[in-house]
Amino acid sequence: MKREDNGKVYRLIKALYGLRQAPRAWNIKLDNTLKSLDFKKCALEQAIYTKTSKDSILLIGVYVDDLIITGTPKKEIDKFKAQMEEKFEMSDLGLLAYYLGIEVTQTEGDISIKQTAYANKILKEAGMINCNETLIPMDPGTRLTKITEKTMVNSTEYQSLIGCLRYLLHTRPDLSYSVGLLSRFMQEPRNKIHGFGDSSYGVNTQEGKGTTGIIFYYGESPISWSTQKQATIALSSCESEFIAAIAAATQALWLKRLLSKLTHSQEEKVTIKVDNKSAI
């Protein structure tokens, strides 16, 4: 290198794979390409693009360089694939069967998802591949508390396992409460669980806080669910139910706005059912 070139750097014409700026450069490239094809990015979910006309609708789900395409009619989907193949080196994998660890089965009129292979992988890593089955993941009366005694387990391994279980919740809403409860004890996990039975609304917390559980259905299909410790202390089961209803209402607002954006239709009212007359 010449002396006068000291302090100079190379300017890359395009980002190299593996460099820090490569994902951003790719996202900008893909975003500009989809917008040039008249797609609009969903304001409520940045990974979704939509394109609608009088007699067609296309929805694109993006994860890095993997695209899920759906819509109607089929000729519009084929047209979009052809347009993308002109701009990128792409492989058409056909009908969606496997995506990010989720197995998809499509039959006439039905689409079902599961994570059998992923669940088996978790069991293998945890050394439980030959374990017995159970109808419920955790005794409903189990009470967990933070303790400073007992021998610590490998916190990194514990946190990794909880992370795997949380991803499994995409297809297993029945595990939501159990995994959510275990997630509260990520710091300094111990090798022995201390359990007590309690059926009050403040169960499983030392601060007297209740637990919120939410699930939403679209038609007959569950699409969103969660369980979490409430942020404030409720003085009655009615107040605890009301706090849960508020959390459900905020999720309902987001869901109905997202659905409206995806389908370009008017926002529909969402019915939230609460089983406490006082809270209602």
Automatic annotation (TrEMBL):
User: InterPro entries, from UniProt?
Assistant: DNA/RNA_pol_sf, RVT_2
- Can you tell which superkingdom this protein's organism belongs to? Eukaryota
Signal sequence range = none
Where do the Reverse transcriptase Ty1/copia-type domain residues begin and end? 5-138
The protein's name: Ribonuclease H-like domain, reverse transcriptase, RNA-dependent DNA polymerase
Q: What is the lineage of its organism?
A: Eukaryota, Viridiplantae, Streptophyta, Embryophyta, Tracheophyta
